[in-house]
Write a structure and sequence with these properties.
Largest sheet: 2 strands, antiparallel
Oligomer: single chain
Distance between the termini: 46 Å
Shape: flat
Strand content: 5-15%
Order of helices and strands: EEHH
Length: about 70
């Protein structure tokens, strides 16, 4: 039942939709695990993570205006 265009929670989905979603999530989880494993065994992994962390910090500081 929807109120003013907003569907109430929990969303109603069919069993086949739930199975399809579960399969997609399992595939995504496998891909993320593979990427994580690749970064753990890469000499570039730590440097790349540090670069992203620094970039996020700079952007956050700019947003805050400090």
């Amino acid at each position: 039942m929807a109120k003013q265009g907003i569907q109430m929670l929990p969303p109603a989905i069919s069993q086949s939709q739930a199975i399809e979603l579960l399969c997609k999530l399992a595939n995504i989880n496998m891909i993320i695990g593979s990427m994580k494993n690749g970064f753990c065994h890469s000499s570039v992994g730590d440097a790349l993570i540090n670069l992203f962390t620094l970039s996020e910090s700079v952007q956050s500081t700019r947003i805050e205006g400090t």
